[in-house]
Amino acid sequence: MSYLQHITSPTLLIDEKICRANLHRMAQKAARNGMELIPHFKTGQSKAIGAWAKEYGIKEITVSSIKMAAYFCGNGWETIHIAFPFNPLQIRKLNELSQNQKISIQLVNSEVTQLLAKKLSSTVGFFIEIDAGYGRTGVAVSDFGKIEEILRISQTSEHLQFRGFYIHAGHSYYAKDVAAIHEQNIAALNMLKDKYSTEFPNLVTRTGDTPTCSMMEDFGGIDQMGPGNFVFYDLTQAGIGSCTKADIAVALAVPVVDINPEKRTILIHGGRVHLAKDVLIEPNGEKNFGEVVMLSENGWDIPESRSFVKSISQEHGIIQASEELLQKTHVGDLLGILPVHSCMTADCMKAYLSLNGEWIDHAEGLVTFNL
Asked: What do you get for the CA distance between the two ends of the chain, in Å?
């Protein structure tokens, strides 16, 4: 039975072959640079995809919340790292998880470090998150006073274990010069390692954004890479140059409910609750909420003439269709939409349908039926 026969409403498809190729390629790059690949699972959020990752030598993962860490506990990971400034209201849950699973967290201030030093009951590792230009969070790379205060407080606790320094250069998603950001990351992490490795000889450095990890080849002695979006990629990454559209491993299957040949538009069941609100801007100023691919028994194909979702509401989407698409499409057909931001689309959909018709889990809940 074809996977297409399972679909009667918006459904997120995953091409395992593409996903594995993305994992393999990044694992090879890490190996060439003598680095560990510790992927961020905020994109896939799936135990099944985690099992695929293990086949490429991945032993440790990164997550974005303690809830996600709990979901992956008990799955044989050496360490689960929570890459978010730690929320002190969750110390009790952290103590619970760290009894049976090696956990590490991120610290950015002395207040939370002090609370953890007092209240932890099991060993927890930590990275100090560094801001080398993104500006979202982290200790400024030159703020040695704050870095050393966090380290000093941690040494008063038998349960806090310093692991190293972590940078997520999120501004690489929007920058014209990704190489310059990458060089900035290398310089910042190498400087910190040189400064503190005498006192902490086992400290490691980690960089974590998909654009630099995908596009750069020389990592200048950084110990670990932790990209996340690369496992699926998306139109945003294709636009940056991190990947090609052929590397995008997920597509939202949507039913066609109406066609307007005069306006050259196709109405689909697929809106914000499925694709999220992420948008790209076309050269003429139009909005692009996702691009059309043609579904087949073996997955999907990228058509020669580009069509895109130009507007969305809660459940509806309107495709600005090429002549090729209008000629091929009928009411009741299924089309595929490559997402602008695969992480958010996956989070909206909460499950994946593989090309062999099997459901793949997502941390937010497995849906195994269509209405």
From this structure: 19
